[in-house]
Amino acid sequence: MWKIAVGFVVFAGVAMFVIFKGGDSIDMGGEKHGSDTVHVPAPAAPPAAKP
Question: To the nearest 5 percent, what fractions of the chain are helix, strand and coil?
Answer without folding.
Answer: 45, 0, 55
